[in-house]
Amino acid sequence: xxxxxxxxxxxxxxxxxxxxxxxxxxxxxxxxxxxxxxxxxxxxxxxxxxxxxxxxxxxxxxxxxxxxxxxxxxxxxxxxxxxxxxxxxxxxxxxxxxxxxxxxxxxxxxxxxxxxxxxxxxxxxxxxxxxxxxxxxxxxxxxxxxxxxxxxxxxxxxxxxxxxxxxxxxxxxxxxxxxxxxxxxxxxxxxxxxxxxxxxxxxxxxxxxxxxxxxxxx
Amino acid sequence: xxxxxxxxxxxxxxxxxxxxxxxxxxxxxxxxxxxxxxxxxxxxxxxxxxxxxxxxxxxxxxxxxxxxxxxxxxxxxxxxxxxxxxxxxxxxxxxxxxxxxxxxxxxxxxxxxxxxxxxxxxxxxxxxxxxxxxxxxxxxxxxxxxxxxxxxxxxxxxxxxxxxxxxxxxxxxxxxxxxxxxxxxxxxxxxxxxxxxxxxxxxxxxxxxxxxxxxxxxxxxxxxxxxxxxxxxxxxxxxxxxxxxxxxxxxxxxxxxxxxxxxxxxxxxxxxxxxxxxxxxxxxxxxxxxxxxxxxxxxxxxxxxxxxxxxxxxxxxxxxxxxxxxxxxxxxxxxxxxxxxxxxxxxxxxxxxxxxxxxxxxxxxxxxxxxxxxxxxxxxxxxxxxxxxxxxxxxxxxxxxxxxxxxxxxxxxxxxxxxxxxxxxxxxxxxxxxxxxxxxxxxxxxxxxxxxxxxxxxxxxxxxxxxxxxxxxxxx
Lengths: 218, 476
Prior knowledge:
The complex is a heterodimer. By secondary structure, chain A is of the alpha/beta class. Chain A is built from 6 helices and 12 strands.
């Protein structure tokens, strides 16, 4: 296998007309801030609060949102959503949200990952990106990724303080967490699953959730 | 896959005569261009982002060995394994070996153009694995046993009637016997069939839109969520990626992502953008136990060293084909290999040789629309011209065409004779055409001048003659 590596690297260097880079040259590359060694070029956002800009982006891609004033309101809001969609008051819930009072909202939560038997999944977003109305979810024992993809309805808890203008601020926060920063998966989710593969007709719910609902907690 | 590009002319004629295909192509034609234009107009920074993207790609290519090494180190730190494949054959062998070693039987796949390029599916099926494509478009063409005809919407050439037939034939074995006619019910049926495949798969194979060197992360972009189910449910995840996919940081990838969705489908952001780093961590309750990346060269390093380096900036958005009049008329299959349209007309001859694919760079009007919309400013018409030049130098084109070009060259470098000749020709043709002013038949032109076309006749004077007359008029 290492033969393959040397072969490819040697071919690259031959084409670039040089040998391997010196340690100094490599250190200089490592010290750059990205490829262009400059601040990221960030698009100007429309006027409004970050929650308003986020909502506009989310609704543009057929996502929905309700705004809550405290985390305690989440189980009630989930129950309201499920009832509104004619669903049983059951949901697969991320362990990070286990401690909420689901029982008094009448919900029977199954805590942990799902294998596809659950109609609704509730997980929490690590950041929200105002620019595009995207949610940034990190995988981990307390937030299994299967909840993001297998249920028909994906409900996501996002704290208003975790809204950032652009993706780049989320990466900066992730880098601050050091070596441990990158979990197995960072899912950046912008609206429910969709396809246009049959006659370019947009259809929601291709393989993933048919609807995406954000619970924004101030 | 075996290239069929040598038969480009015949395949184009079939495509033009295939009424069902023409219906499908006409539907696609304006949809993409309009969506892209809207999305681009809504982002004032789009042009500066394009410049930034070019700078990102050029810098990375200039230091490709460094960033690939950094990327590979980071993958290994996260518990993943990196494999290097010089050729398509190496890539196939590596993927098959990983699948064998894991004791797999069923493999799900997310859409991967490099996977198509090196022929992963064929190798796996030959080795006895069941391979299921999970992107709806790829799934449809897998059932039809056809290659993709577009890099973003692989089944864009199929109508709902054809897809309904395919599902009806192939889904009986799952007890789904009703013939469907509406798009939502077809999407639902595919969802139902593929859901079981995701859950049963032992290995999931995806491509990568970007590889991030700083963190050892692979990025895939899908609208359906199929890529995520493919890479998170099975116990082994294999990423197949061309070596040009690497970028230094997540910020660099974010710049390119702003261009990719808008250029491809007119979306500000594709639905699922997934950043994967290594296998599942201790304590994780889902995710694969093994994470492999196969870095594939397959001719990319030679492009790096010649006039075609700029082609390695390509982020596979499909905008060039969505704006190409030739692609719009004949669709992707006529091109005869994996990549169609303008980008394919550059890549295919480089991959399979000009002898096989010399027709592709010639099937271009040099209207330049592809270069105008290319998010990473690849000068596609220039590259196509370079290929034509190379074809001429290698004495590969058809003889009459080569002779014609040589005669043309002689005339254009002898302007006096050229002008005299064209003056006589213009007058003769105007006389021959008579009052109708157009030709319906053209003796000696051969078979191409048929099929309802006519040719407007010259009006008796050459452009140069008119120009000179007017200039004299002005001066006097």
